[in-house]
Design brief:
- The chain has 451 residues and is α/β, with parallel strands linked by helices.
- It contains 12 helices and 13 strands.
- Helices cover 29% and strands 11% of the residues.
- The longest helix is centred in the last third of the chain and has 35 residues.
- It is globular.
Length: 451
């Protein structure tokens, strides 16, 4: 421990993470070191030194301070050269919807950043509470406050967060229809960018129709590709694999190679750092312990969402299609030259997206599959409808089987206790699988002998 702090989970939340497969596996975990408490004295108004071609933006603080291990540990800010991006934009005027586990609006790094939202799990809520911490971490990566020199600062620190809670206390959802409802609501309430740090192996017609609605309303949608430790399949998660969505895989801390825990595939669009991250967490129970170590594609995706917010902040009238084009055309190539199934177009480059000369486009370059229910950018349908959507989706009914899912992030524990618990779960699951295989073989052999 550093500063006497420990990552905190309630018993229910920790059990939920294990049940959802969100707790990292022993092979991917490292001993956690919780960040020091945020200093409260001495606010700084220091600005980033302007680079060539732009003036410094007021209210964007330095990347690190000698007495602040939280800011110093945000290594992704240096990996992505966020200081260079702040020369041109800071996210002002852009609303980013975080469809997740809710957001702790009272966290010191998010005070004033969170708009009234929607809670689709608890009808009494409005999305501003977070029982598991995932959505709070995601939101601070996007728009953590930058009015002083300490704590978690977001890549787009002047953007606003629109929280939509769809993940329950077990950090998962039972039906993708709840995510679809959240997407539609976010679009109708001013979101210009939507972050989906969640998903699952199955597809959902209802969610496809909701994404269609977002595209038609000129909204940029970003989703994580998923983690190998929380998936029963090696394929890119849905909704990340939906044509038109920016699917984000995870890189190692320095952005050199793919993180071994990241799912990737032909649908991968770009990558961002996913390891050795320090994140904001709910402070309701212990206000002096508002940070923890995290990893996962869940936390790579909001770096791309924040980049989209920066672009839309600099060019408020730029279409979503052009924002997406800028992000993919300026990504720093990795692996095989050009787009590949490991890194997509490469690692996101916020400064490049804000400065490069990119040809204009009229349609989303990622939306290349005009399947029924999946529209390209065009005239927006009426609220609550989606182009080419099945009739029962338009009337609010579910389509097909229930499609469950969860987030793609994990907290790195500060002891072996959580790791051991997760390992026991995997051993139990493996034993049950082996038993079922043996029973199956016995049954087949028996029937074969009878025949």
């Amino acid at each position: 421990m550093v500063g006497g702090l420990r990552p905190r989970f309630t018993a229910a939340a920790l059990a939920g993470l294990v049940a959802a497969g969100a707790t990292c596996s022993p092979a991917l975990c490292a001993p956690a070191v919780a960040a020091a408490a945020r200093p409260t004295a001495g606010l700084s108004t220091a600005s980033v030194t302007p680079g060539a071609g732009g003036a410094a933006l007021a209210g964007v603080g330095p990347l690190e301070a000698p007495d602040d291990t939280v800011r110093a540990d945000q290594t992704h800010l240096k990996t992505l050269n966020v200081a260079g991006a702040w020369t041109y934009a800071n996210g002002a005027g852009v609303t980013v919807a975080v469809i997740d586990s809710g957001v702790d609006a009272n966290h010191v790094d998010l005070v004033g950043q969170v708009l009234p939202g929607l809670d689709l799990v608890d009808p009494k809520g409005n999305g501003d509470t977070d029982l598991v911490g995932h959505g709070t971490t995601v939101s601070a990566i996007i728009a953590g406050r930058s009015d002083d020199s300490s704590g978690v600062v977001g890549i787009a620190p002047k953007a606003k967060i629109l929280p939509v809670r769809v993940l329950d206390q077990e950090n998962r959802y039972d039906d993708a229809l709840i995510v679809a409802k959240g997407v539609r609501w976010a679009v109708d309430h001013g979101a210009r960018v939507i972050n989906l740090s969640l998903g699952g192996n199955g597809s959902s017609a209802a969610l496809a129709a909701a994404l269609d609605y977002a595209f038609a309303k000129d909204v940029v949608v970003v989703a994580c590709t998923g983690n190998t430790s929380t998936s029963s399949s090696s394929g890119v998660w849905y909704p990340a694999r939906e044509p038109g969505v920016i699917a984000v895989a995870g890189m190692e801390q320095d952005g050199s190679v793919l993180w071994s825990g990241s799912i990737t595939g032909k649908e991968t669009v770009v990558t961002a750092p996913a390891t050795h991250l320090v994140g904001a967490r709910p402070e309701d129970a212990q206000p002096d312990e508002g940070y923890w170590r995290v990893q996962g594609t869940s936390f790579a995706a909001p770096m791309v969402s924040a980049t989209a917010a920066l672009v839309r902040s600099r060019w408020p009238t730029m279409s979503a299609a052009e924002v997406i084009s800028r992000i993919i055309k300026t990504a720093k190539d990795r692996g095989t030259p050009g787009r590949d199934s490991t890194y997509g177009y490469g690692m996101v480059d916020p400064t490049g997206a804000l400065t490069a000369d990119v040809p204009a486009v009229l349609t989303n370059p990622l939306d290349t599959t005009p399947d029924p229910g999946i529209a390209r950018f065009g005239n927006a349908p009426a609220s609550g409808q989606a182009q080419s959507a099945p009739d029962d989706v338009r009337t609010g009914g579910a389509v097909g089987a229930r499609v469950p899912g969860s987030n793609a992030g994990s907290v790195i524990p500060d002891s072996d206790e959580s790791v051991t618990s997760a390992a026991r779960g995997w051993w139990a699951a493996g034993s049950l699988f082996l038993l079922s295989v043996l029973v199956g073989l016995f049954t087949v052999r028996r029937f074969a002998s009878v025949a």
